[in-house]
Design brief:
Blueprint: H1 7-15, H2 30-40, E1 52-57, H3 60-67, H4 75-80, E2 83-90, H5 97-100, H6 107-111, H7 115-139, E3 143-147, H8 152-159, E4 164-173, H9 189-192
Helix pairs in contact: 1-7, 2-7
This protein binds flavin mononucleotide (FMN).
Flavin mononucleotide (FMN) is lined by residues 18-19, 74, 146-149, 168, 180, 183-184.
Organism: Streptomyces alanosinicus
GO molecular function, one term: oxidoreductase activity
Domain Nitroreductase: 17-174
Amino acid sequence: MSLVLDPAAQDLLFREARTANTFTDEPVTDEQVQAIYDLVKYGPTAFNQTPLRITLVRSPEARERLVQHMAEGNQPKTATAPLVAILSADNEFHEELPALFPAFPQAKDVFFAERPAREGSAALNAALQAAYFIVGVRAAGLAAGPMTGFDFEGVRKEFLDDDHTPLMIVNIGRPGQDAWYPRSPRLAYVDVVTTV
Ligand SMILES: Cc1cc2nc3c(=O)[nH]c(=O)nc-3n(C[C@H](O)[C@H](O)[C@H](O)COP(=O)(O)O)c2cc1C
């Protein structure tokens, strides 16, 4: 009763949504990915810095190169998912800040002149955006399989550059056969929330 979001949407985004480990062959189109991005880009980040960058791994040759960097248990699903996305944080996001945060264009120099400050902020805010992205995939009626079981330095060298830090790799598609493990329990409200 406390939530205004339609119950069917609550199920789609959270209660019934699962992390898929297998997928059907149905392709995921660029139009779907664009619709997902155009929704989740409105999720908030500090100073509106939006440091998430998304690399769609579409060619079979690139897919093969990526699979080599995945942990063994993640290799089959990364090899067979209709679409795989590398999510990374842009550590040079500050270049866009004057345009992205016109209310305080000096933020670029006041807070983000030093690379370590940018890296910390980019890691947090791109991770937030990765979470929005996963929920956006679900909003498109698709399932996401996020993974951090891979060689981060290998993926950075193979697909990115020194200015980008890999965050996670996400398999995307419609769930296939035996797509998920049994649902694991979640911590209860009383175990997580304290009031002071
Ligand atoms: C950031 C992140 C990293 C993950 N890494 C892996 C991974 O490397 N391999 C894997 O099989 N599952 C991975 N998972 C999947 C989680 O185990 C799964 O989302 C969680 O158990 C919840 O499952 P459910 O959505 O089916 O309830 C990852 C999930 C997240 C969000």
